[in-house]
Amino acid sequence: MARVILVTGVARDLGARFARALAEDETLDVIGVDVTPPRHDLGQVSFVRADIRNPVIAKVIKARAVETVVHMAIVASPGRAGRSSMKEINVIGTMQLLAACQKADSFRKLVVQSSVSVYGASPRDPAKFTEDMSPRAQPRTGFAKDALEIESYVRGLGRRRPDVAVTTLRLANLMGAGVDSQLSRFLSLPVVPRVMGYDARLQFLHPSDAIAALLEVTRHTYRGTYNVAAPDVVSLTQALRLMGRPAVGLPQQCGPMIAGMLRQARLGDWSSDQIAALTYGRAMDTTRFVTTTGLAPRFTSREALEEFVSVSAPGLLSAQRVDQALTSVSSLLEGVRRG
């Protein structure tokens, strides 16, 4: 009999790609759940339109005898729905989903997609966070706060159902061709605002490596919490140089103004925690995941960023733009000489 795996959040790109890859295994019966129909091809995945905030999700889990739940319906940016709706999906939705899982006799495994955001960002941070470290500056707003709450509820389920294998993956910021996130939109600005005197450390994860990690922990049993990221870091200065984007430096006291500018530019619901991450940066130690699973990311942070740059519009300082400017000037000078 096929193992039944339920994946939430399949309307989003990463969730759809993961569920489709998982369903290629004919021994698995994969059910995709989301409140809106997926925009991406789900392959052999059976789609169920359902809201995890509604107790009806318990009926789906019971009726299909779901054995494994992969929770990916976590919203990092509120979009048009607003912060209150984002918190409902993240926190209330997770609570309802876990309550439904706890009651199901068939339920034996939970995989949760968490984030590097749980570590916050401060000038007192270590070079790299291990899974056993706590944030030096506790996240107070937005997605980071939601991620911390979600992890606390997940740990609670693990205590109430010790027979269930619980795995939490803290993923670094995704980066690569086609990635659309608050950070990728920030780096794509024509002129990037930044805090003077700081050069944030950025650590990325290519979507294909994120999917490989999720597939590994779903197919096999690894209990506990794991950091998943490329092993290297890229400084904000290096990232802007690769993007060909000029930057404008602002005093640290202007952090709230920078967040306001980014919100007005409709780049997401930027908070003080996110500005702190772009000021001090942060990175994770991935030794536990690589040692336990034997799986290491194929893309470095720099390679993931270079792939994103290759499909992005060239920045004002990119080699392409500079060559175009030099060609224009050369043509102008040649015209003047002939005239």
Overview in brief:
Helices cover 42% and strands 17% of the residues. The chain is an alpha/beta fold and 339 residues long. The model has no long low-confidence stretch (mean pLDDT 89).
Description:
By secondary structure, the chain is an alpha/beta fold. The strands form four sheets. Strands 3-2-1-4-5-6-11 form a seven-stranded parallel sheet, sandwiched between helices. Strands 7-10 form a two-stranded parallel sheet. The chain has a two-stranded parallel ribbon with strand order 8-13. α3 links the parallel β4 and β5. α8 packs across α9.
List the defining traits of the structure above.
two-stranded parallel ribbon, NAD(P)-bd_dom_sf, 339 residues, Lipid_A_modif_metabolic_enz, Putative nucleotide-sugar epimerase, isomerase, single chain, alpha/beta
Give the SSE layout.
Blueprint: E1 3-8, H1 13-23, E2 28-34, E3 46-49, H2 56-63, E4 68-71, H3 83-103, E5 109-115, H4 142-160, E6 165-171, E7 173-174, H5 182-187, E8 192-195, E9 201-202, E10 204-205, H6 207-219, E11 224-228, E12 234-235, H7 236-243, E13 247-250, H8 255-264, H9 272-280, H10 287-293, H11 301-310, H12 319-338
Parallel strand pairs: 1-2, 1-4, 2-3, 4-5, 5-6, 6-11, 7-10, 8-13
Antiparallel strand pairs: 9-12
Helix pairs in contact: 1-6, 2-3, 3-4, 8-9
H/E element sequence: EHEEHEHEHEEHEEEHEEHEHHHHH
Secondary structure tally, helices: 12
| Main sheet summary | 7 strands, parallel
Radius of gyration: 22 Å
Structural class: alpha/beta
Question: How much helical structure, as a percent, in the residues?
Answer: 40-55%
**What's the overall geometry?**
globular
User: Count of DSSP E strands?
Assistant: 13
Task: For the record, give the distance between the C-alpha atoms at the N and C termini, rounded to a whole number.
Answer: 83 Å
The low-pLDDT segments are none
Average of pLDDT: 89
**What is the topology, as strand order, of the major beta sheet?**
3-2-1-4-5-6-11
Strand residues, percent: 15-25%
Domain NAD-dependent epimerase/dehydratase: 5-229
Keywords: Isomerase
GO molecular function, one term: isomerase activity
Protein name: Putative nucleotide-sugar epimerase
